[in-house]
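Onboarding guide, step 5: your first structure request.
Type a short instruction followed by the sequence, for example:

Predict the 3D structure of this protein.
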Amino acid sequence: MITKFTIGRRHSGDTWDVINLVSDIKWVTDLNFAAGTLTFDLLFDSSFYPQNGDLVEFQWDEQKIFYGYIFKVNFKEDKKFSITSYDKTRYLKNEDSLVWPISTISDRFDTVCKMAEISHTVVNSSNYKLPAEVADAKTYFDMLKASIDKTQKATNQMYYVFANYDVVELRKAPHNELNIIVGDQSLLTGFSFEKSIDEAANSVRIIKKNQAESQQTSSTSSDSEESSGDDPAKTSFSYADSSNINIRDWGKLQTVESAKDKANDAQMKQRADELLKEKDRETYTLSLTCLGDTSLVAGNSVNIQIDDLSKAGFWINNTAIMKATHNFGNDYTCDLEMKVNEPWLENNSST
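The system replies with structure tokens like these:
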């Protein structure tokens, strides 16, 4: 049940208890660099009007769930406000231009949170040193995403940003391996599982363009349309290939990438092997609907026990939550999007 729901002016200190006026409360946490969201309907009360920037605090069953600020207010003909509020990570959408020195993801997280003026802490630090780089007119989220992606490729550890009520945290996934079983006999009310090779590649080609001269020519077609490009007489390509035997099962699924400047044959071959390892895999999508539990948030992992999945040949044990949508009410439910068989969970999940 709701044990606290207040809306307050950010600086005046005026606060209104709206616990008996709210309905359709939905809380979303998402690892995909999106701010935590709380949406709700609020009955009209002439004593106050919700405003953008107002502070929203929500607790469920004495547990602190959401601390954030109103960003959208919609007033409807049924005398209800429909409100969207975001947690403090929303301020990581601020844009800036920075020159990063050699530093860790922990250092960069600390820097952008200070610049966004939000309370924060590093729960899990990283020692991996990222190269110096320039981030020009990018959001803090984009800066962190680029740094997190590079750290993950180098260390096989995934970091993410999460608002723990009023403090933004840098965490390593999975943050908390819950002793919760979501399955036929526990919490589960529905599921959907999909495996796909739409984005897969089992053949990789790294290409280097060779030109006798740095020259472009233009020609005019019969209908007088002009086109320009490399001169075929002076252009050739060098290749480095890598492929997998599963071509016989999937057919040939090829992707190409341009070689870095001055890359030699050995470096091109190494990059082809690396890219093949990244691309040569099925992707899995597992969506769950279950009874509500406030610990089921993005970044935590749970145990899965679904008999029908096992009978169909898919064995999924422990997997992490990528996105969680909590629907609070008399029937408290969760919709979960899971991360299955990804590199940072290979030892725990399999199909």
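Each response can be followed by summary notes, for example: The two ends are 38 Å apart (CA to CA).
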